[in-house]
Amino acid sequence: MAETQEKVVVRGLEGVVAAETSTSYVDGVHGRLYYQGYDINDIAEKTTFLEIVYLLWYRKLPTREALNRFRSEIVSEMRLPSPVVEMLKLTPPNSHPMAVLRSAVSMLSVIDPDANDVSEEANWRKAKRLVAQIPTIIADLHRIRKKKPLISPDPNFGISSNFIYMMRGAPPEEVEMNAMDLTMVLHADHGLNASTFTARVITSTLSDMHSAIAGAVGALKGPLHGGANQKVMEMLLEIGNADKVQEYIESMLENKKRIMGFGHRVYRVEDPRARHLRKYSELLCGMTDQKHLYEMSHKIENIVLKQKGIYPNVDFYSATVQHAMGIPPEYFTTVFAASRTAGWIAHIMEQYADNRLIRPTSKYTGELGLPFVPITDRK
Ligand SMILES: CC(C)(COP(=O)(O)OP(=O)(O)OC[C@H]1O[C@@H](n2cnc3c(N)ncnc32)[C@H](O)[C@@H]1OP(=O)(O)O)[C@@H](O)C(=O)NCCC(=O)NCCS
User: Fold this and answer.
1) What's the pTM?
2) I need a labelling partner for 164 at 20 to 30 A (CA). Which of 56, 132, 141, 172 fits?
3) Would the CB of 314 count as within 6 Å of ligand 1?
C-alpha cells in the first residue's frame, strides 16, 4: 500500500512532457503557434491547406512544382471505394457525422490496399489516401443524407475547395476558397492535444495508421475538444439576437456553466487562431446577411473576457465561419477532423520513427489482499 500512496497523480497529465515533436509548437504564454518553425501569423492567410500538409509531413515548404505534384497525387485519391459509400448509406440518418466518420475510417482500414503493410513506404501511401478520403467521406455523407447525387473531385482544386464543391455541388467563390483554406490551415496541428496524444498512444503499440486515426477521431468528437464548435453554433442559434446575449451569458456564468469555444489548457492569452477566424467571421457573416451572428459572438467575447478573463479558442469563430459557408453545425467537428488528419499523420510518423510503447502508470486506490469467497458461499 505504501508504494502506491507515494505516487503523485498529475490530473489530466497537465504539464507532463510525453513526447518529442518538431511538427508544431504551442507557446501558451505569448499566444503563438508554430508549424515546423513557421509562426502561424506569418503563414495562415498566405498558404493553402495542401501546402501545410506538405510542410507538416516533409518538414519544408514545397516549391510550386512539388506542390502541384503533391496536389495531383492527393486529389487522385479523393474518390471513396464503393464499399465505403455503401456503408455511409447504411448509417442511420440521425447518427452523428463524427460517429460515421470514425466508423468509415475503420471501414477504409479493412479495404486499404496496404492494410497489412506497416512499412514506411506503405504508411506514406496510407497517409495520402487518408488525408484525401476523409473530406470526401464528409461531403458524400452530407449528399447521401440530402438525397443528392455524389460529386467527383475536380482535379483543378485542392482538398479544401474540393471539399466545398463536393459537399455543395457548386464550385466555391474565391472568398470561400480562402476561408476554407484558412480554417483547415489553422486546425492542421496543435501540439500534443488530446486526439493527437490518442493517435500517438495507438501508434506506440505498433498498431496501424487507420486505427490511430479512428481513435483520434473518437477523441476529437468530445465537447471539451473538437466538439465545441458545434456547441458554439447551437448556443448562438439558441440565444437568437444580440439583445439577449448579456442575460444568457451572465446566467451561464452564474450557474458555473462553461461557455463553449472559450478557455484553453495551454494558452493563457488569446489563441492566435481565433484572431484570424474572427476576421473571416466578420467578413463572411457580413456577406451572407448574418451580421447579427458576428455581433453576438463579439459581444459574448467581451463579456466572458471581462467577467472571467478567458479568451475565445479556435472553435469559437470557426463556428460562424463554417455556418456562413453553408456547412451544417453537426458537420463542423468533421471539418476539424479532416484538417487535423494532417497533424495526426505527422505525429504518427514521428512516433513510428522513434517509438517507445506509451504506457504510464496509475495510483491504485482500491483495497489489497481481500479474502476470496467461493461463489457457492457468497451472500
Ligand atoms: C478547454 C478546456 C477543457 C480547458 O480546461 P482546463 O485546462 O482543464 O481548465 P480548467 O477546467 O481548469 O479551467 C480553469 C478555470 O477557468 C474556467 N473555465 C475554463 N473554461 C471555461 C469556459 N469555457 N467557460 C467558463 N469558464 C471556464 C473554469 O471553470 C475554471 O474556473 P475556476 O478556477 O473558477 O473553477 C476548458 O477551457 C473548456 O471546457 N472550454 C470549453 C470547451 C472548449 O471550447 N473546448 C475547445 C478547446 S480548443
Assistant:
1) 0.94
2) 56
3) yes
pLDDT at 98: 98
Q: What is the set of active-site residues? A: 264, 315
**Residue 265 Cα to ligand 1 middle (Å):** 8
Using CA atoms, how far residue 335 sits from 159, 181, 187, 199, 212, in Å, is: 12, 11, 9, 18, 18
List all residues 6 or more positions away from 378 whose beta carbon is below 8 Å from its beta carbon: none
Task: Indicate the residue type of 224.
Answer: L
Comparing CA positions, the residue from 95, 79, 329, 378 lying closest to residue 223 is 329
Q: What share of the chain is helix, strand, coil (3-state, %, to 5)?
A: 60, 5, 35
329 Cα: distance to centroid of ligand 1 (angstroms): 22
Q: Are 107 and 84 in contact (CB under 8 A)?
A: yes
Q: Is the CB of 224 under 6 A from ligand 1?
A: yes
Q: Do domains 24-222+333-353 and 228-324 have the same CATH topology?
A: no
Assign domain 228-324 to a CATH class: mainly alpha
| Order of strands across the sheet that contains 24-27 | 24-27, 32-35, 38-39
pLDDT tens digits, one per residue of 172-202: 999 999 999 999 999 999 999 999 999 999 9
Given a cut of 80, is residue 308 above it in pLDDT?
yes
Domain boundaries, the chain: 24-222+333-353, 228-324
* E strand spans, the chain: 24-27, 32-35, 38-39
Distance of CA 262 from the midpoint of ligand 1 (Å): 7
The β-bridge relationship of strands 32-35 and 24-27 is antiparallel
Residue 263 beta carbon below 6 angstroms from any ligand 1 atom: yes
**Amino acid 7: pLDDT:** 84
Q: Whose CA is nearest to atom 7 of ligand 1?
A: 265
Residue nearest atom 41 of ligand 1, based on CA coordinates: 260
Task: Provide the 8-state DSSP code for 13.
Answer: G
Domain at 24-222+333-353, CATH class: mainly alpha
154-173, pLDDT tens digit by residue? 999 999 999 999 999 999 99
Q: How many CA atoms are closer than 13 Å to the CA of 373, on its beta-carbon side? A: 6
